[in-house]
Prior knowledge:
3 helices
Amino acid sequence: MSDQIRVATIAEVATFFRWANEKCMQVKNGTPLLSAMLSPLRLHPTSKCFVAEMDGRIIGAVVFSTKDSEWELATVYVAKQYRHRGIALLLAQTGLRRLIDAGDTPIRSEAISRDGARLLNRLKEEFGEHLIIDDDGCYDSLPEQPDPPEPPK
Length: 153
């Protein structure tokens, strides 16, 4: 598990996203696979961001953004070597609870991978009507995403 989940600044998450894009860039047909999901351009002044830290390093982040006056769970990313420890779930749960407590619902999201679909289904069980999943089932054909080495301190 992570040392802590905390609110993060947009600048911290942008730095983490830039690092992840540089370290885990996989290109398919000339197109970087992660650049859209982890783009600092997804971060807006109104975004609400949370990070997981371990040993002083950011190892994961979740970003919630407003879209057409609705909140969206825009991105959840955990460095590969820290996956399958419940960190993505804890990040998303923390952020969802904060938004729900503030009355910022419903919150929309969609899966772009098999792991993302599993995460959203688990969150939907916990948060019910507060979370709307836009799902067309297309994530089943997506490849597993590559990952970076150790995050910088």
